Amino acid sequence: MSIKDAYNQWSNQYDTNVNPTRDLDKEATIQTLSKYNFDSVIELGSGTGKNTEWLITKAEKVVGLDFSIEMTNLAKAKINTSQVYFQHADLNLKWEIENESANLITSSLTLEHIQDLNHIFQQAYQKLKPNGFFFICELHPFKQYTGSKARYETTEGTKELEVYVHHISEYISEAKKSKFNLIEMNEWFDEQVENEIPRLISFVFQR
Ligand SMILES: C[S@@+](CC[C@H](N)C(=O)[O-])C[C@H]1O[C@@H](n2cnc3c(N)ncnc32)[C@H](O)[C@@H]1O
Questions:
Q1: Minimum-distance ligand 1 atom for the alpha carbon of 90
Q2: Where does ligand 1 bind, in terms of residues with CB under 6 Å?
Q3: Which of 2, 9, 37, 193 is the most interior residue, by most CB within 10 Å?
Q4: For range 185-203, the mean pLDDT
Q5: Residue 66 C-alpha to ligand 1 middle, in angstroms?
Q6: What is the mean pLDDT of residues 165-174?
Q7: pTM of the model
């Protein structure tokens, strides 16, 4: 099943099933981005709007890009404000957004489904205003090495989605190739058990 079809199928339980990765991402996003000032945001893989709801408490405008109609319909049902515009888009293609239009781009739990990070960093650089920030929060590659990946339950059993492993060095070298500077990198653990494998990794890059 394609990634898009899987998210369409997963959507009706995405917000409610037990998902510590989703919950920790929300915490990591809020904790990290509370420190930054931004008013215009592009959210990559906006999904059911879990983080959009928080982003509009700080930003004047958020554009959410996602290729799953079902995930986006849930986001639209939750968020009813002219501050947010959800656009149906495949991130692997050229993003149909004005250049230098945002001072923050965010991507949570989405890049594990994208093979070519170079394309993402190049597009992000074009769409960001000078000095704008690119926040990424993803399943930690150490977790991926142990076989962890996006999955959900159905009546026919567990469905696992197509994923790509991105090593830490890949995020950093691809960002550098697109002329981004690394501002911060953090690892996020379950219940602060710091001798366990971290669940998530986050980066803030600056254009
Ligand atoms: C795990 S969900 C994360 C949703 C949201 N960011 C969150 O943290 O709850 C991943 C989202 O990325 C979207 N996605 C994955 N690959 C994509 C692509 N190539 N283009 C657009 N959206 C994509 C999926 O449709 C899904 O909504």
A1: 20
A2: 3, 7, 22, 25, 45-47, 50-51, 66-68, 71, 89-92, 108-110, 113-114, 150
A3: 9
A4: 88
A5: 6
A6: 98
A7: 0.96
Q: Which domain holds residue 68?
A: 3-206
Residue nearest to atom 8 of ligand 1 (CA): 108
Which two tokens mark 190? 């379950």
Average pLDDT for 94-106? 98
CATH number, domain at 50? 3.40.50.150
CA 103 to chain centre: 16
What span, in angstroms and rounded, lies between the C-alpha atoms of 99 and 81? Answer: 24
Counted domains in the chain: 1
CA of residue 68 to ligand 1 center, whole Å:
8
- DSSP class of residue 186 equals E
DSSP H helices, the chain, are 3-14, 20-33, 52-55, 69-78, 117-127, 141-145, 168-177
